[in-house]
Amino acid sequence: MIYEFPPRDEPIRQGDIFEHIPHVDISLSKLPVIMGEHSQILTTWEKVATNDDPVLAIVSAKPVNGIVITQDCDAFRAEDITLCEIRPFRTVERRSADLKSSPEKWMKMLTQQARINQKWFYLPPDADVGFTDKMGVDFLVTLRVLRLDLEALRHRRRGRLNDVALAHFRERVAEFYRRYPYNEWYPLNKDELKAYLKDHPGSEPYRWQTTG
Questions:
Q1: Are 114 and 168 in contact (CB under 8 A)?
Q2: Residues 6 or more apart whose Cβ sits within 8 Å of residue 112
Q3: Which of 38, 107, 158, 201 has its CA at a distance of 20 to 30 angstroms from the CA of residue 149?
Q4: CB neighbour list of residue 7: distance below 8 Å, 6 or more residues apart
Q5: Where are the beta strands (DSSP E) in the chain?
Q6: What is the pTM assigned to this prediction?
Q7: CA 149 from chain center: how many Å?
């Protein structure tokens, strides 16, 4: 498919796919903190972050798949490398949750929605890279790993995007971070807004759409 498989000792590059990367979950309102050698308290981040000293806390971490979004030049020398989480496509793109196995319907989803939705990148199944189902890169979920630590985990690199897919991936990452967020219904008149709200009931009208 769209993957290639570099030697283990090859440097980390954008588009590299890793397994078992830690996704750390932390609650700022309920933070277990280690005090002294054996005591533990449940507090808030605001209470312990009163100075620049490190805090020893207990956090939850689960292993996930991830893909490197850090550019190659930074991946060679930066202190940290950023990845985005990879999950089953049906959980990344909600419109596909109930989609049947029709090739035509999937074709439309993976071509048309890929142009519209800038929040994900599609990864097709490939047993060699460890994907038994359609997968998606969720640009909203980032993972930060120390570069030296990730280099020590290169045996966990399952593959990387080939040249065609990588060029597209780079553009998608750029599109995601430079996109201008706006409410698409702002220029609609009252009648157009009324029709729009049938499919988007949570959209809040603007002042000029409720007066005059």
A1: no
A2: none
A3: 38
A4: none
A5: 3-4, 16-25, 31-35, 39-43, 60-68, 80-88, 120-123, 135-146, 157-161
A6: 0.85
A7: 20
